[in-house]
Amino acid sequence: MTSKITLARMRKLISTMLKFAHPTTHLSVPTCATIHIRSVATTATSTSTSPKPAGDISSVFPSLSGTASPPLPPRFADLKRRLIRGHESRVQDSWCRLLIALQQQRQEITALGSAIVPEINFWDLSDVSQRTSFRDGLHKRGVAVIRGVVPENEALDWKELLRRYIRTNPSTRGFPPTNPAVYELYWSPSQILARAHPNILRVQKFLMSHWRAIPSSSSTKNNDNNNVAPLISTSHPLAYADRLRIRQPGDSSFALGPHIDGGSVERWEEHGYGFGGVYDHIFHGEWESYDPWEATSRLPVKSDLYNGAGACSMYRMFQGWLAMSEMRAGEGHLMVCPMVKEAMAYLLLRPFFTPKRDTTAAPAAYLEPENWTLEHPMTSALQGAVPGNGQELSPAMQPHLDLENTMVHVPRVRPGDYVAWHCDTIHAVDSIHTGTSDSSVLYIPACPLTVANADYLARQRETFAE
Fold first, then answer.
1. Residue 271 and residue 285: Cα distance in Å, rounded?
2. Which is more confidently placed, 337 or 39?
């Protein structure tokens, strides 16, 4: 008989784990240290959540499901007015500065292509000089490749084990329904082995150490205690049950374009990312002061206000996957927009601005800062954001990002390489897999230990036991 685990027991397990843990600081920069971490287990409270409707990855993105997206209700126009009230002139000025910064970023990305993505070998994680160079690139680009995390033959064995598992369980669902590329599998033996692999855990800790934590009162709006240490540990990565991909050559169904996970409208909503004031600097006309790597403000965030099918409510510092095949550009590979700070600032400010003249026949003039002004009256539009879905982007909706040129492929990977990207990074996959062999990955994000994540872990365990 399978026994259900209670939240109280989960707290005890976490507390026991932390008792014998010895967290370390990986870099000589402020990181999310373990501060008062044992109280995570004792202060966590059960959160009441409604069961999510069944779905697959197409349930998260209207572009995959073909579902029409109705206009947002008028309350979003009111929300937009509140977000920048009293800061209108500063927001206008910051928009002009941002467009200039984006132009400079576009030039760098176009010149470097895939080489702009930082890389490090797994065996170099203890090399200070290698780490320092890698850190600088990661902070600027928001994406990275870690080579040789798992031996190549072991990654290939996991793929073969998955194939046998899928053959043995022909009712396994996926997307598309016929000839799936992304499988609704979460607890197969291969996935369990990969998540628990010591090298994967070491890489997750290493990556999460690049985030910073500051006292709560300095970063969040809803805490009056001036001396509250952030309840977060990047030295204790938590397991998040995610999907897997085995995409065959010629597939064009899994054509997932530029998008960001972790909610959509929630990034503007006061009861979403607004709980921690994550993007306040941007809405106040100070996008340069926004720090994508500050973790404390994200602790109270509600990234799934609409209980969307397939949407994620866990705080994932990095999304990531482990390669189970060789992949290069055009072969069902990952594409990213490697300017995590500027791109997020633009995404959030774009709904507040409208062009004075529709000069799309002359793109350069259309994109000039002088051609854009604050909306008046303010509309409810949040381009690409649909409640209960992920955030989607396109060249038409976000023209200054120049996504056709700034979405670059991650460098070629081999089985056992790990690719990670910041939770705010715009990413996509090749619309057509033009290679000659499968494009296969295990999705394994990096999740810190927090109160909310501990609650999620308890619910995840209970669901598994059922």
1. 21
2. 337
User: What CA–CA distance (Å, rounded) separates 298 from 288?
Assistant: 18
Instruction: Kindly tell me the burial class for residue 359, based on how many C-beta atoms sit within 10 Å of its own C-beta (0-12, 13-18, 19 or more).
Output: middle
Q: How many CB atoms lie within 10 A of CB 420?
A: 24
- What is the per-residue pLDDT across 417-430, written as a single tens digit (0 to 9) for each? 999 999 999 999 99
* Helix/strand/coil for 390: coil
Q: Is there a contact between 421 and 270 (Cβ–Cβ < 8 Å)? A: no
Length of the chain: 466
Q: Please, are residues 353 and 375 in contact by the beta-carbon 8 Å criterion?
A: yes
18 phi and psi, to 5 degrees?
-70, -30
Cα–Cα distance, 375 to 306 (Å, whole number) = 27
**Given the DSSP bridges, would you call strands 119-121 and 408-409 parallel, antiparallel or unpaired?**
unpaired
Around Cβ 166, how many Cβ atoms within 10 Å? 17
pLDDT in tens, 351-379: 999 999 887 668 889 999 999 999 999 99
| Start-end of H helices in 214-339 | 216-219, 280-283
Q: How far is CA 251 from the centre of its chain?
A: 25
CA angle 42, 43, 44 (to 5 degrees): 100
Q: What is the DSSP letter of 376?
A: S
Tokens of 321: 């996957």
Q: What percent of the chain has pLDDT over 70?
A: 82
Q: What percent of the chain has pLDDT over 90?
A: 74
SS (H, E, C) 196-222: CCHHHHHHHHHHHCCCECCCHHHHCCC
Q: Is the pLDDT of residue 321 over 90?
A: yes
Q: Are 315 and 123 in contact (CB under 8 A)?
A: no
Residue with tokens 């069944």: 54
Backbone dihedral region for residue 22 (phi beyond 0: left; psi -120 to 50: alpha; all else: beta): beta
Task: From residue 232, give the alpha-carbon distance in Å to each of 11, 34, 156, 190, 461.
Answer: 15, 6, 34, 29, 21
Of the candidates 56, 65, 83, 59, the residue with the CA atom closest to the CA atom of residue 267: 83
How high is the pLDDT of residue 191?
A: 97
For residue 291, count other CB atoms closer than 10 A to its CB: 15
**Residue type (1 letter), 313:** S
| 254 against 30, higher pLDDT | 254
Task: Inform me whether the pLDDT recorded for 39 exceeds 70.
Answer: no
Q: Please give the Cα distance from 210 to 319 (Å, whole number).
A: 14
Query: Tokens at residue 459, please?
Result: 């619910």
- Given a cut of 70, whether residue 4 has pLDDT beyond it is no
Q: Give me Rg for the CA atoms of the chain.
A: 22
Query: What secondary structure letter does DSSP report for 255?
Result: -
Residues paired with 238 in a beta bridge: 447
